[in-house]
Backbone:
């Protein structure tokens, strides 16, 4: 059978999946947990606690700050130290809640049993009830972007959802958190998928997995057959060719159902697909079935020079320094600390940044990996054009952005750029293509927005 | 933690590709043809190519340092050496050194550095050098050494090339002249013992050039679009013309003669002067093919490839402007 | 016929026909332009810097004439030409013009390499916009100058340059025309257009850091900690402290320099003042 893939562009970075076969460990509790109020796309959450308040694991500490927002729950039990500012993954100081950790007491409403809950045993779970529970639990996209999940499940009236696609691709190098989640919690993930399909009122589901995870493909294909054969749902596990950025939602939709999402402001649901990360799916299961709000996640801590890289179940709010120490400490020499993978991750200036809802990996690049080579003039080889998965011309967009020609940049569809970095990865002259395009894209989007007013 | 953390914007990884890998890769791809040429033409090939490479590299260094006053030295990226080698491959092996140096001055000095150096030139530097020499020194540039005289350089015995024979056939209207040409297989291997002189250093062995082509495809240095579109266009048009009037040579002879393979594989695929999209490259290749046939058959020069490529170089910015890659989501009309 | 005569006749008639066509077109398709626009344009400096907010001197001339027809050219000012030029324009248009105080660009950051240690190393595109998008920069202050010179690149009057020792830009008072290009270029809004002041003297808070005092001090020795001592000293109610940052309103400031002495971190700067005479018991202000 021909392995499916997206139709335009793509690159093959080195996999470096150092922690592929490292079973997930539960990370120890931190001494102090820090909760930035903006861990998702949309308005920051508003704190509902103050200095001195006692909280348990699962207590609400910040409520949603608007429609496009999500609440934040404490991942630890203890006392609120202060509501102050902390450096978060953006690199800037933003409002955050500090909690001193005391013990590990959980809210009684959370079901901590290991028993697998099935949808058919819960007739009270209508589509609206499922979406409400997801909203209350503060589930947001766990693949890194952090879009509030309940909004994705309620498409606008102009679009009709036809299927749910689970993004288990994990195309970024180094990251293995989603893979370990699939190997260890496959039953729960399939229940989560059923919940998502029920919430979105669709009967078709797909799970997209790259071919570099054959065990996961085999495991999930077997389980899907057992769970969904003969039911109302039609679920297919789709092996996908190993290529970056297969995990980008537009590329995933193109590969799985052969439909290309048009330029922004169109979103995947405009062509009928709702895409959710596999980590989000697991969080949906826990939120709906176990009444467990989102406060912990599977995170990979990895790096070539780390002595003990691994996959961890981390309570959010744990400072990254503690995770790095758990894996043997920061290596000697020059290092780059990334929240995320090497292609789209964010470089951090401080190790005190806490693990948040979207932190799928803590990656440490060392030595020559941490540095960039000197840029040379553009040799017009057009390799960036071949690599771009959106069919754009990166060399041209970068040049127009650096010359501030916003009109022409808009004509050349700069807003369609998904900032995957394939162009800069490929460029033989080591030119900072994406650095320039990103600047241009944000300026042009600002211009378009002000035009609409 | 003693060292400061390094920060930058994403992506934080880079592939193994580099400008040097591409430039030196093309040079390696040219080596089979150069070796065959050494075998056939003798030390003349070595002297011409070495002189060309040395003068191009030296000129680039000198212009960078003394005329432009730049601090960084660009001669190590391989592009000057590549221009030098390509210029040399486009010259007959009995060309005197002083003419080669003049060619290098025009190739690097005029065609490349005046436009701003690597990446900014509009015309292929090696071809500009070759065409300037062709126009300025037509006698020396059209005296073709016979193969088999290893130790002779400027005093090599000369003879006619297949291209001049084909031109003669068209001008006299006598198709029987074409019978004196070697068969396609011999031309592929570079054995011109039956046919007299051969041509420039790079043209002689089609097989060696094709090996270079396959090497470059394998290394991902070029894609098939430009060379294949040129060769197929020339093949189809010359086949039609040959059937209509046998005065025009048969298509395999046309493809294997002159600088067509060298031009299609190495000169037209130059990064800086060719279009940036695959569709654009196909259009570019077809136009080059048509122009080559037109100049070869109806122009006064026997060889049309270099001029055809230079003319199409001028159209590359226009092609880049109007031919855009297919955007993601284009087919979905709202 | 004689070929020369024929050639002359043919070319001559072509020329005549072309001339007639051009004449008719110039009359029929003529666009009426108010002659005052050309007059005003003559008076304007012709630098097309955009400091007035219009696309160029031509566009401003049109806007001025339009404004004159409506009755006033209030709000339109050519910062390069200044009040001289605006006065002349007003004369030509038969109007009165409001006089603005001359302004100058002020860099509100004193985070020199000495005051503000580096905590990270940035590699990549060396522009302030890129570094700002990457994070707080190379120091622990997320509000301070990044030192890549976007402001220097934006200035068309050569009035701002980067001091390589301090890592901060410096404005040349004489060349600055307050066009505002550097203000727009700075991604952190550190540069502000303030009143030039009598004898070029002015006082401003050289910091835009809104973090709490302890945090900002840790990042930079010269930071404003929002203690409020300056506001207490000011008798003219010119100083407000908001979000841990002090700000001096230049319309109210009387240049008395009491706030300068009161500031514990020396974040308030007084420019072009003579050194104060040493007074017993008080520290000398540099």
Residues:
């Amino acid at each position: 059978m021909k392995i499916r893939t997206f139709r335009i562009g793509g690159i093959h970075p080195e996999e470096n999946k150092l922690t592929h076969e490292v079973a997930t460990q539960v990370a120890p509790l931190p001494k102090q947990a820090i909760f930035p109020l903006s861990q998702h796309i949309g308005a920051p959450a508003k704190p509902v606690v103050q200095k001195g308040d006692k909280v348990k694991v699962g207590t609400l500490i910040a409520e949603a700050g608007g429609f496009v927002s999500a609440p934040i729950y404490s991942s630890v039990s203890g006392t609120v130290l202060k509501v102050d500012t902390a450096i978060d993954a953006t690199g800037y100081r933003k409002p955050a809640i500090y909690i001193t950790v005391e013990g590990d007491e959980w809210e009684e409403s959370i079901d901590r049993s290991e028993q697998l809950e099935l949808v058919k045993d819960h007739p009270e779970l209508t589509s609206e009830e499922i979406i409400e529970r997801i909203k209350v639990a503060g589930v947001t996209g766990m693949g890194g972007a952090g879009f509030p999940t309940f909004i994705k499940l309620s498409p606008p009236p102009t679009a009709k959802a036809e299927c749910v696609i689970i993004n288990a691709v994990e195309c970024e190098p180094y990251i293995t958190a989603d893979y370990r989640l699939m190997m260890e919690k496959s039953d729960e993930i399939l229940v989560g998928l059923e919940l998502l399909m029920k919430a979105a009122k669709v009967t078709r589901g797909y799970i997209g997995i790259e071919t570099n995870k054959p065990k996961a493909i085999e495991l999930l294909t077997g389980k899907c057959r057992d769970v969904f054969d003969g039911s109302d749902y039609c679920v297919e596990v789709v092996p996908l060719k190993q290529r970056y950025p297969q995990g980008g939602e537009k590329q995933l939709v193109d590969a799985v159902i052969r439909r290309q999402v048009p330029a922004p402001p169109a979103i995947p649901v405009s062509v009928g697909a709702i895409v959710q990360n596999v980590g989000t799916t697991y969080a949906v299961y826990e939120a709906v079935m176990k009444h467990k709000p989102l406060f912990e996640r599977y995170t990979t801590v990895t790096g070539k020079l780390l002595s003990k890289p691994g996959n961890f179940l981390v309570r959010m709010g744990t400072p990254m320094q503690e995770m790095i120490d758990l894996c043997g400490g920061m290596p000697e020499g020059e290092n780059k600390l990334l929240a995320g993978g090497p292609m789209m991750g964010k470089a951090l200036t401080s190790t005190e940044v806490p693990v948040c809802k979207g932190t799928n990996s803590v990656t440490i690049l060392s030595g020559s990996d941490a540095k960039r080579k000197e840029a040379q003039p553009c040799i017009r080889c057009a390799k960036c054009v071949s690599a771009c998965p959106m069919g754009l011309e990166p060399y041209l967009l970068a040049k127009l952005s650096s010359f501030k020609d916003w009109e022409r940049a808009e004509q050349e569809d700069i807003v369609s750029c998904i900032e995957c970095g394939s162009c800069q990865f490929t460029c033989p002259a080591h030119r900072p293509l994406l650095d320039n395009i990103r600047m241009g894209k944000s300026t042009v989007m600002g211009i378009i927005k002000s035009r609409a007013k | 933690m003693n060292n400061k953390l390094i920060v930058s914007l994403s992506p934080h990884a880079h592939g193994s590709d580099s400008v040097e890998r591409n430039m030196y890769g093309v040079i390696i791809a040219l080596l089979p043809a150069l070796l065959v040429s050494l075998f056939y033409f003798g030390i003349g090939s070595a002297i011409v190519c070495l002189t060309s490479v040395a003068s191009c590299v030296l000129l680039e260094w000198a212009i960078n340092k003394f005329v432009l006053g730049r601090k960084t030295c660009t001669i190590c990226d391989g592009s000057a050496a590549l221009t030098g080698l390509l210029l040399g491959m486009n010259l007959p092996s009995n060309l005197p050194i002083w003419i080669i140096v003049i060619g290098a001055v025009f190739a690097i000095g005029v065609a490349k550095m005046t436009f701003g150096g690597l990446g900014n030139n509009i015309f292929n530097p090696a071809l500009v050098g070759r065409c300037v020499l062709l126009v300025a020194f037509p006698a020396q540039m059209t005296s073709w050494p016979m193969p088999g005289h290893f130790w002779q350089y400027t005093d090599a015995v000369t003879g006619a090339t297949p291209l001049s024979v084909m031109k003669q056939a068209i001008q006299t209207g006598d198709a029987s002249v074409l019978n004196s040409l070697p068969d396609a297989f011999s031309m592929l291997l570079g054995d011109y013992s039956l046919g007299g002189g051969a041509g420039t250093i790079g043209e002689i062995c089609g097989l060696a050039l094709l090996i270079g082509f396959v090497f470059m495809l394998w290394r991902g240095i070029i894609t098939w679009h430009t060379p294949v579109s040129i060769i197929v266009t020339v093949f189809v048009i010359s086949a039609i013309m040959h059937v209509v009037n046998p005065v025009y040579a048969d298509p395999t002879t046309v493809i294997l003669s002159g600088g067509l393979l060298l031009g299609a594989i190495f000169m037209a695929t130059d990064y800086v002067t060719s279009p940036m999209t695959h569709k654009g490259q196909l259009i570019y290749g077809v136009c080059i093919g048509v122009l080559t046939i037109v100049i070869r058959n109806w122009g006064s020069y026997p060889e049309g490839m270099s001029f055809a490529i230079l003319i199409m170089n001028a159209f590359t910015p226009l092609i880049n402007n109007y031919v855009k890659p297919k955007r993601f989501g284009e087919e979905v009309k709202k | 016929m004689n070929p020369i005569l024929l050639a002359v006749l043919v070319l001559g008639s072509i020329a005549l026909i072309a001339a007639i066509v051009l004449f008719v077109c110039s009359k029929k398709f003529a666009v009426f332009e108010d002659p005052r626009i050309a007059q005003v344009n003559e008076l304007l400096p012709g630098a097309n810097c955009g400091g007035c907010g219009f696309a160029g001197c031509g566009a401003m001339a049109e806007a001025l004439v339009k404004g004159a027809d409506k009755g006033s050219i209030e709000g339109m000012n050519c910062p390069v030409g200044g009040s001289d030029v605006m006065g002349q324009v007003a004369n030509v248009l038969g109007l009165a013009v409001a006089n603005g105080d001359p302004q100058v660009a002020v860099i509100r950051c004193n985070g020199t390499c000495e005051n503000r240690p580096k905590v990270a190393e940035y590699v990549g595109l060396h522009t302030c916009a890129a570094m700002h998008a990457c994070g707080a920069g190379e120091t622990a202050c997320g509000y301070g100058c990044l030192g890549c010179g976007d402001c220097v690149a934006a200035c068309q009057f050569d009035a701002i340059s980067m001091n390589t020792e301090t890592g901060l830009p410096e404005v040349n008072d004489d060349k600055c025309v307050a066009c505002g290009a550097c203000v727009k270029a700075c991604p952190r809004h550190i540069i502000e257009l303030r009143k030039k002041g009598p004898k070029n003297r002015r006082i401003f808070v050289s910091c835009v850091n809104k973090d709490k005092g302890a945090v900002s001090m840790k990042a930079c020795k010269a930071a404003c900690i929002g203690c409020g001592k300056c506001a207490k000293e000011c008798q003219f109610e010119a100083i407000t402290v908001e979000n841990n940052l002090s700000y001096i309103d230049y319309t109210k400031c009387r240049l008395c320099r009491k706030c300068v002495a009161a500031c514990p971190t020396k974040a308030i700067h007084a420019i072009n003042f003579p050194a104060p005479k040493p007074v017993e018991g008080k520290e000398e202000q540099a």
Observations:
- Confidence is low (pLDDT under 50) at residues 281-286 of chain C.
- The CA atoms of residues 111 and 140 of chain C lie 11 Å apart.
- Chain C has ten helices and nine strands.
